[in-house]
């Protein structure tokens, strides 16, 4: 009997149109911590959601700045998961909808990426709107030109998502014959709610260390993403 990993690999190889939905577990092999595990960014931190909220940015910008700086890992490189997804993009229609804000899918060369929660590496001044380099932001949170407070273009708690990102993600999911969920607990909404827009006859594959709560029929391969993608 064919095992689940082989079955999932064969489905991906046969697919013509794939949407990958990826989370923090995809980037841990690149040395970027996840959020909620024992070694994650949130572990041991009181009220981390506040520290990454619009309210914190406005009321205590210095507190926000000190916390958000920990999320930057500019030397991190794409790992085998990012690279294999980019390779598949060369021969298939592939869209990647990611919760990650590290740009590693883009750095790996995938042409169709929706960074659903924005990017740490897109920084701008809230006062004048000018783009600011990450290296400048890492040195000081104030814009040298006008004195305004710089922020990364990520979706904070209490902020709305990009309408264009939502529309693009829904469009991709409605056309894909395979949806592959990788490295996420799939508990963050509305990201997890995108699955409801998939084509009814599409196949759903989940590659994750733990089972996820998902009503749709799916094939679960319970292992690290880097191990699975090394075999494709």
TrEMBL record:
<dbReference type="InterPro" id="IPR003000">
    <property type="entry name" value="Sirtuin"/>
</dbReference>
<keyword id="KW-0862">Zinc</keyword>
<keyword id="KW-0479">Metal-binding</keyword>
<protein>
    <recommendedName>
        <fullName>protein acetyllysine N-acetyltransferase</fullName>
        <ecNumber>2.3.1.286</ecNumber>
    </recommendedName>
</protein>
<keyword id="KW-0520">NAD</keyword>
<dbReference type="InterPro" id="IPR026590">
    <property type="entry name" value="Ssirtuin_cat_dom"/>
</dbReference>
<dbReference type="GO" id="GO:0046872">
    <property type="term" value="F:metal ion binding"/>
</dbReference>
<dbReference type="Pfam" id="PF02146">
    <property type="entry name" value="SIR2"/>
</dbReference>
<feature type="binding site">
    <location>
        <position position="125"/>
    </location>
    <ligand>
        <name>Zn(2+)</name>
    </ligand>
</feature>
<dbReference type="InterPro" id="IPR029035">
    <property type="entry name" value="DHS-like_NAD/FAD-binding_dom"/>
</dbReference>
<feature type="domain" description="Deacetylase sirtuin-type">
    <location>
        <begin position="1"/>
        <end position="227"/>
    </location>
</feature>
<feature type="binding site">
    <location>
        <position position="146"/>
    </location>
    <ligand>
        <name>Zn(2+)</name>
    </ligand>
</feature>
<feature type="binding site">
    <location>
        <position position="143"/>
    </location>
    <ligand>
        <name>Zn(2+)</name>
    </ligand>
</feature>
<dbReference type="InterPro" id="IPR050134">
    <property type="entry name" value="NAD-dep_sirtuin_deacylases"/>
</dbReference>
<dbReference type="GO" id="GO:0017136">
    <property type="term" value="F:histone deacetylase activity, NAD-dependent"/>
</dbReference>
<keyword id="KW-0808">Transferase</keyword>
<dbReference type="GO" id="GO:0070403">
    <property type="term" value="F:NAD+ binding"/>
</dbReference>
<feature type="active site" description="Proton acceptor">
    <location>
        <position position="117"/>
    </location>
</feature>
<dbReference type="InterPro" id="IPR026591">
    <property type="entry name" value="Sirtuin_cat_small_dom_sf"/>
</dbReference>
<feature type="binding site">
    <location>
        <position position="128"/>
    </location>
    <ligand>
        <name>Zn(2+)</name>
    </ligand>
</feature>
